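Morning!

As promised:
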Amino acid sequence: DIQMTQSPSSLSASVGDRVTITCQASQDIYKYLNWYQQKPGKAPKLLIYDASNLEVGAPSRFSGSGSGTDFTFTISSLQPEDIATYYCQQYQNVFTFGPGTKVDIK
Amino acid sequence: EVHLVESGGGLAQPGGSLRLSCAASGFIVSKNYINWVRQAPGKGLEWVSVIYSGGSIYYADSVKGRFTISRDNSKNTVYLQMNSLREEDSALYYCASGPSDGPPRYWGQGTLVIVSS
């Protein structure tokens, strides 16, 4: 089974700050890494797929990079509506989620 | 427009059973994969099971031997039969779908399962 780790588990940043979250897979998952945003009481929403592709309708301040085992998710300028928990997910071999990163406004 | 609607959640006793349904509209379930993903209160997302378009089926170790995923193409619906329920199965259960070569981009709103005596 492929295990996913994420860091940090939580962060607090100011509006306009650049925010970076990292995700690591326990084995090579090539490009098969997605990033989701989940707000309280809502289903997860796909933001980035295949490591670096912006989902249609997702704001351009969200971006992703990486391949193999190490991946990065970035919010270029944090907005109040970005308060949420963010999850990475691999789908190279069935599916596995990372433990999530809770993002707050400082 | 794609929609997934889960149903069948509720209260069950430990050792009991429930059957969840995921009804799809706007796409054909047999040409895509359907996942079940659960989220216990205040916890993260946990993948549970998947049925692929070709019929391959996989389960998380935590539910293997107790849960069964199936598909009714005539109803465009996927099911999750949950037997031998445990308190730790209590969660909001989502179904999520994507094409065979793409990410799970379509999600339902979830159905709540509570296992308690």
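Chain B touches chain A through 19 residues (CB under 8 Å).

Hope this helps with the figure draft.
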